[in-house]
């Protein structure tokens, strides 16, 4: 995802001299080409995120389109007051780019886990929040952010995320994408767990005989209310999937839509990190597993929720060892 971000930003910068990039002491191997080609529009601000956001707001006030890059928890939570006062209240044209969302930087420890950032940013009026699910969605998200007048937060993974979309993508800010249609249940995934959602959908479809509607909800704010309402009416079972606390993120956003537009007999469950701190350090795959976000645990949860028993054959090596698997999560 990070490479897709840099490549897209370079293309934008060549076409638009208003594009600036600020980084918080990160991206030395990523941003060298940008720095060399646009030396007057690249600034390494050091590990001083609050100051970086303030500078970005100042640049935006004189007509620049400013991209601010750092680890997801640092570019949202560490400088929240500056985002609120300097960026959002003035509708500054600042694009916050948070890398390594969820457990993306798991080996670096709990300070680098990003499990509250969506919830924090959703409280701010007028800011758009985009969580692309693969490199193709990243490219579309950066283009959409650049052409949106006002603050945007784009939540990226770390690296190595597989390409999910194989066809040209029709991407509209605030409109989810139906990747697979189905009538038995809807699985609404966002960001780094879109690939996991696709695998879970395939397991349920091929081995449990369930018709699953898989939705990529790349925009959390504004949320695609009509798509959620349609899925609720037509499937009567909705599961949200995110690498984030279940409070404040995608699950909460979908729950708000459902609460205000109730559907009789609807089953709704949020799949994500429960309301707890993860004090364990490890790989992203391991941390997902112990938080119930591995393929096998997600499939079992969904089957139990709809009253179906999970057969052991659902988790054969053949089913769970596809080329794009990030990890089996059978720890």
UniProtKB/TrEMBL annotation:
Domain named Transketolase-like pyrimidine-binding is located at 1-163
UniProt xrefs under CDD domains: TPP_PYR_DXS_TK_like (cd07033)
Under InterPro entries, the record lists:
PDH/Transketolase, THDP-binding, Transketo_C/PFOR_II, Transketolase-like_Pyr-bd, Transketolase_C
Keyword list, A-Z: Thiamine pyrophosphate
Obligatory cofactor(s): thiamine diphosphate
User: Which is one Pfam family of this protein?
Assistant: Transketolase_C
SMART domains (UniProt xref): Transket_pyr
Write the signal peptide boundaries: none
Family the UniProt entry places it in:
Belongs to the transketolase family.
- What is the protein named? Transketolase-like pyrimidine-binding domain-containing protein
Species the sequence originates in: Candidatus Sungbacteria bacterium RIFCSPLOWO2_12_FULL_41_11
């Amino acid at each position: 995802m990070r490479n897709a971000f840099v490549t897209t930003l370079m293309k934008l910068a060549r076409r638009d001299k208003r594009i600036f990039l600020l980084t918080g002491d990160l991206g030395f191997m990523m941003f060298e080409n940008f720095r060399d080609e646009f030396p007057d529009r690249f600034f390494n601000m050091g590990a001083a995120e609050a100051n970086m956001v303030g500078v970005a707001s100042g640049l935006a006030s004189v007509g620049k389109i400013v991209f601010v890059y750092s680890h997801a928890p640092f570019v949202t939570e560490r400088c929240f007051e500056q985002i609120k006062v300097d960026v959002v209240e003035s509708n500054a044209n600042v694009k916050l780019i948070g890398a390594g969302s969820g457990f993306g930087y798991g080996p670096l420890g709990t300070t680098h886990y990003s499990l509250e950032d969506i919830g924090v940013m959703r409280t701010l009026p007028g800011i758009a929040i985009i969580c692309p699910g693969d490199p193709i969605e990243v490219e579309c998200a950066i283009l959409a952010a650049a052409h949106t007048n006002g603050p945007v937060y784009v939540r990226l993974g770390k690296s190595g995320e597989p390409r999910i979309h194989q066809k040209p993508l029709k991407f509209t800010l605030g409109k989810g994408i139906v990747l697979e249609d189905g009538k038995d249940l809807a699985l609404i995934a966002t960001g780094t767990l879109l690939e996991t959602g696709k695998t879970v959908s395939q397991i349920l479809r091929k081995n449990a005989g369930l018709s699953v509607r898989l939705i990529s909800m790349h925009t959390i704010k504004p949320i695609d209310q009509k798509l959620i309402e349609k899925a609720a009416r037509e499937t009567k079972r909705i599961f949200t999937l995110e690498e984030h606390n279940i409070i404040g993120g995608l699950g909460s956003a979908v729950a708000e839509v459902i609460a205000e537009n109730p559907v009789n007999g609807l089953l709704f469950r949020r799949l994500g990190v429960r309301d707890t701190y993860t004090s364990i350090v490890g790989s992203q795959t391991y941390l997902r597993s112990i938080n119930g976000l591995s393929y096998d645990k997600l499939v079992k949860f969904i089957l139990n929720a709809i009253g179906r028993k999970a057969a052991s054959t659902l988790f054969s090596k053949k089913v769970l060892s596809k080329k794009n698997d990030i990890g089996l999560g059978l720890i």
